[in-house]
Amino acid sequence: MLITVVLAALALGPELAVPGWAATAAFILQVGLCHPRTRWLRGPWTLMAQAALFPWAGLPGFLAGSVLLVVPGRSRWALFACVVAAAALSDTTSVYACANAIGNTISQGLVIFLLTRLGEVRAELHATRGLLAAESVRVERERVGDQLETSIGDALTGIIRCAGRHDMAGVIALARRAARSARESPPPTAVPEVAPTDLTPRLVLPIMVAVHAVYLVVAALFVIGQEPGGPALAVHLPLLAVVVGLHLHHSTPRPPVSRPRFAAWTLTAEVALACVPLFTPGMPYSQLVGLAAGAVLTLARGWWSWLIAAAAVLAVPTTLAARGVATADVLILTLDVVAMTVIFYGIAITTRLVHQVHETRRQLAEIAVLRERNRIAKDVHDLLGYGLSAILVTAEPAARTGAPGDRRFEEIAGIARRSLGDLRAIPGGSTEISLDGELRSAGDVLSAAGTTPRLDLGHGTLPQRTDEVLARVVREAVNNVLRHSRARACTLETGRGEGTVWLRVANDRGNDRGEALPATGGRGQGIPNLTERIGAWGGTVTAAPADDGFELLVRLPAGAPDR
Predict the structure, then answer these.
(1) Can you tell me the distance from the alpha carbon of 250 to that of 344, in angstroms, rounded to the nearest whole number?
(2) What is the H or E stretch that residue 507 is in?
(3) Considering only Cβ atoms within 10 Å of each terminal Cβ, which end of the chain, N or C, has fewer?
(4) What's the burial of 335, exposed, middle or buried (CB within 10 Å: 0-12/13-18/19+)?
(5) pLDDT at 113 over 50
(6) In this structure, what are the phi and psi dihedrals at residue 237, rounded to the nearest 5 degrees?
(7) Contact in structure between 270 and 314 (CB atoms under 8 Å)
(8) What SS3 class is residue 405?
(9) Nearest partner of 393 among 448, 475, 472, 452, judged by Cα
(10) SS3 514
């Protein structure tokens, strides 16, 4: 919508001349080239059609903008320069006429290109916001996978080798080192940089500088031509330079929450100075008011910004009429100011929207990376903590006896191999475990640690995800028993009834100080993690001291569907 309004204003020109057939055709073609839904029209044939209409349409800015939109790479700028040169040769009646043709072609072409591409970049960034998040998660998985392989994988490989050499001291040292690494959170990583397009926000600045510089030169030539050597010239030229400079300062691309330094003062100064040429002797120069109104809409906040901008624009016809300017000229100059306001405000607001979408993509990627990092941390705690605890509770008592048998070393090597497999599956999220398998493994690990396992199973066949969730509960619960108690016996009991499936894990002794493991708030995060996971499935977790030991009871809906 915005680009269509701007194109209409450029086609009509400041004189509001009724366009002929060629100008009308050029306008319709340019709308098709600039509109996102008809961008498929961009190609050599439409560019040739625009070039063919140029001698009759008299709209070189349209052709210049089309060249920038259609031609790829750096060659577009060479062709753009050719169009500018052709526009200069089309009107050589005076220095001002030639300069005005050059300036209008450059500024209009850049504005058309800028508004069109900014809108498209915004749409592209919005449509691909999920791709950046996915790429960020992939990079995070690779980074964490490499880190886990170095910090824990190498230790587990070393444990397997030490077990093969019957080096129990080496097994214990490596298991403790790996356990420390498993408890450490990986350092954060930056979101990957987005590959720049032909018009990322940072590349808008050179175009904005060029548009303002061209406007300043053409406007200065116009003022000089209107008042050669007149007394008002000494006022108009400095005012022109200051207002254009302030407007460039206000419209420089920056993040949405960022504002120019001393914005309240500089904006007030731009508005006030832009109105001065309305009251100086000679022909009033009103275009600067359009720049100031655009700056007000860009920087001010709330509904009152529109009131201030409207008041500044309405000051133009009011002042011109009061000074006796012809009604037709008043209408033309007022519409010219409105067009300037729309163009410069449109560039600024579209740039801001691109920044906003760009920032939103970055924030979504950071959230995705944070979630992935939390998932990996939970899996490391739940899966690797279990295996490393099992290795330690198997190795340390055997080392104290002084004569561990071959079976102990085989058990340690087997646990290390399973843990290594879990480690390499964690970054990809492909750690699939089963309840039956974990119950069997828990019995073996408890036996190896000198704790008698008592299994009473009645859960039957469960949905896959329910089965996996309960398998992780078994692994975490047994890990807590191994790490925090001196249990002689541990009961693992499952059952179904009244639409629920339940799992009970109970051990008969507390920790080394004779205390039961607290349900929440302990040094580890096992019980809170379990409570969060089971709660997400509509289940409940009860964890409390029982007799001289500890009991964990988990209930889940028996028919919960896979997720």
Answers:
(1) 11
(2) strand 500-507
(3) N
(4) middle
(5) yes
(6) -65, -50
(7) no
(8) coil
(9) 448
(10) coil
Residue-averaged pLDDT of the chain: 80
**Per residue, what are the HEC states of 217-267?**
HHHHHHHHHHCCCCCCHHHHHHHHHHHHHHHHHHHCCCCCCCCCCCHHHHH
CA dist list (Å): 233 to 96, 237, 288, 289, 290: 16, 6, 15, 18, 20
Strand 540-546: give its sheet, edge to edge: 452-456, 489-497, 500-507, 549-557, 540-546
Residue in this structure with the two tokens 């996971």, named with its chain if needed? 533
Q: How far apart are CA 153 and CA 147, in angstroms?
A: 9
Question: Rounded to an integer, what distance in angstroms lies between the CA atom of residue 120 and that of residue 34?
Answer: 9
Provide mean pLDDT across the span 260-285.
Answer: 85
Q: Give the pair of three-digit tokens for residue 70.
A: 């259609």
What is the pLDDT, as a whole number, of residue 454? 92
CA distance 275 to 319: 10
Return phi, psi of residue 186, to 5°: -65, 145
Measured between alpha carbons, how far is 20 from 560 in angstroms, rounded to an integer?
Answer: 71
| Strand (E) or helix (H) holding 101 | helix 95-127
Query: What tokens were used for 45?
Result: 């044939």
Q: What is residue 12's predicted lDDT score, i.e. its pLDDT?
A: 72
Q: How many CB atoms lie within 10 A of CB 95?
A: 11
Q: How far apart (Å, rounded) are the C-alpha atoms in residues 136 and 148?
A: 18
The yes-or-no verdict on residue 217 having pLDDT over 60 is yes
Q: How far is CA 227 from CA 235, 240, 280, 330, in A?
A: 11, 14, 12, 19
Distance CA 333, CA 387 (A): 80
* Contacts of residue 148, Cβ cutoff 8 Å, sequence gap at least 6: 380, 423, 426, 427
Spatial distance between the Cα atoms of 191 and 202, rounded to a whole number of angstroms: 18
Tokens 């043709």 -> residue: 101
Question: Which residue reads 């560039």 in tokens?
Answer: 347
pLDDT of residue 229 exceeding 80, the answer is: no
Domain 438-563 class? alpha beta
Q: Is 217 exposed, middle or buried (0-12, 13-18, 19+ CB in 10 A)?
A: middle
Dihedral, CA atoms, 7, 11, 16, 20, nearest 10 degrees?
Answer: -140
**What's the DSSP call for residue 556?**
E
Amino acid of residue 362: R
CB within 8 Å of 268: residues ≥ 6 apart: none
Q: Do 293 and 342 meet the contact criterion of CB atoms below 8 Å apart?
A: no
Structure-token pair, residue 194: 């987005």
Return the HEC string of 521-552: CCCCCHHHHHHHHHHHCCCEEEEEEECCEEEE
Q: Which two tokens stand for residue 136?
A: 């960020």
